[in-house]
Each structure stands twice: as structure tokens, then as C-alpha cells.
Amino acid sequence: MNLNLKGRNALVCGSTQGLGFASAVELALMGANVILMARNEEKLKDAASKLDTSLGQIHRYLVADFSAAHNVQAAIDGFDTVETPIHILVNNTGGPAGGTAQSAKTQAFLEAFESHLLCNHILMQAVVPGMKIAGFGRIINIISTSVKIPLAGLGVSNTIRAAVANWSKTLATELGSFGITVNNVLPGFTKTVRADYVIEKKARDSGKSEEQVLKELVAEIPAGRIGQPEEFGAAVAFLCSPAAAYINGINLPVDGGRLGCL
């Protein structure tokens, strides 16, 4: 099985912690040069220093705040994608605040649409020309199992994640003939800051303890536990490998079997 990414350049967003960092770690272990992208420069420096370099990989970072699309545009415009073509793009942005769809302000939808779909789109347009020249490209969108079954109390997130999923599927059909695959990876409950937020909110809304909320959540997972970030990162990295060349346009849940649908 060809999992070798030596000589490939990967741009990984939201990569100073959690699922983004876990994905960057796995891609580096497979030989990729990783460009981390997030808003905190000190955290970016620290994250880059932790990536594997045993195969001669060179890692760097770009600073961008995904709350405003023009920040992402400026960051990628300042990066020479001709000299250093991007072969792998992992789109990943922190989820919108919780709450019901009916109570959400219209501004919340606009902000989420900008930070998720528009920023993803800007980066895709910047890197696809290089992927076409190389005849190799991988675009991975880290979104949510809510694209299959909406999650209660995450109205804005459910809506915007679905938009990203359909944008991704459309790109998969447009770019497949160039050797470029576009897939979505859907995290279940994984030990991340986002998961901690969801547990805390559920506890606050229900009046239960966080321990009780966690116990109830785990009871819904056939694996009997929450996932670890590196398990999720491994799935992302596989889809980026040469071995996954014929996997295109899918939603891949990494959730321990929790989803109630295929």
C-alpha cells in the first residue's frame, strides 16, 4: 500500500490543536512538508516544532484569522504556490456557537458561511492550479456528522456544514479527472476543545453534571469510548495518500459507529 507523501506539500488549517494538529502530525509522519495555518503565531511555531522531520521534511506556517475571509486571502496571496505548490489541502475551522436554528441571528449564519465555506473556497482556488499541474491533489474538509443527521442544539453549524458538504461533492465531480480527490471527514465525539465545549453546554442546558453528560454520550457509541485525535488524523492522512486515489466525493464518519445511518 503506497502511503508515501515524501515531496508533497500539505496546507492544514486550524492546525495548532485538536483534529487539525492531529492531521498535520500524521501527514508529516508520511513524509509531507506541512504548512500550518491558524491565527496564533506562537501556537503555530510550537506546533510546527513538534512535527516529524526524519525524512527531511520542511515545515512552516501561515498566520490567518478565519473569522474574516480577507485575512485568509491575504495569507495565501503572500505564499508562493508556484515555487511551493500545494498538493494537499485540509480545510478545518472551529465550529459555530451552539443554539437552535430558530433562535439564531441572521448574522450568525453569515459569519459561519464566511469562516467555513468562503475561506475554504479561497484556499481551494489558490491551490488547485498547482494540483492540476502535478496531476495529484487531495482536498479534505473536516466538517461534522451533522451532514448525515443534524445534531440538536447546533442549528447554525448543521446548516453551514451541509453547505460545505455539497460544495465538496460538487468539486469532486469537477476535479476528479485531474487526479484531484475531494472528500469530507466527519468527526464524532473526539477528545478536543470542541468536544469539551459541547459537553459543557449540554450540562449547562440540562442541569446535569458534565460527568453524567459524558457517560450518556459514551453510551451512544458502539466503541464504548470517545475517540482520540490521532485516530481521526490517521483517517485524514490515508485519504491524502496515493493509495486513496479512487476514493472521491465521500463523507467518511470517524465516530466509533455512533451514527444511526449508513
SSE inventory with pairings:
Layout: E1 9-13, H1 18-29, E2 33-38, H2 41-49, E3 60-63, H3 69-77, E4 88-91, H4 106-134, E5 137-142, H5 155-175, E6 180-187, H6 193-206, H7 210-219, H8 229-240, E7 251-254
Helix pairs in contact: 1-8, 3-4, 4-5, 6-7
How does this model look, in words?
The structure is a single chain. This protein is α/β, with parallel strands linked by helices. The chain folds into 2 domains: 9-188 and 228-251, Rossmann fold; 190-226, no CATH class. It has 8 helices and 7 strands, in the order E-H-E-H-E-H-E-H-E-H-E-H-H-H-E. A 7-stranded parallel sheet has the order 3-2-1-4-5-6-7, sandwiched between helices. The longest helix has 29 residues, at 106-134. The chain is globular, with a radius of gyration of 18 Å. The two termini are 26 Å apart. The relative contact order is 0.16.
CATH homologous superfamily of the largest domain? Answer: NAD(P)-binding Rossmann-like Domain
In the CATH scheme, what's the topology name of the largest domain?
Rossmann fold
What is the number of beta strands? 7
Report Rg: 18 Å
Unreliable residue runs = none
Q: What is the ordering of alpha helices and beta strands?
A: EHEHEHEHEHEHHHE
Q: Percentage of helical residues?
A: 40-55%
The averaged pLDDT comes out at 96
Strand content: 5-15%
- What is the CATH class designation of the largest domain? Alpha Beta
What does the main sheet amount to? 7 strands, parallel
Total number of domains: 2
Alpha-beta content class: alpha/beta
Query: If helices are DSSP runs of H or I spanning 4 or more residues, what is the number of helices?
Result: 8
* Proper CATH architecture of the largest domain: 3-Layer(aba) Sandwich
What is the straight-line distance between the termini? 26 Å
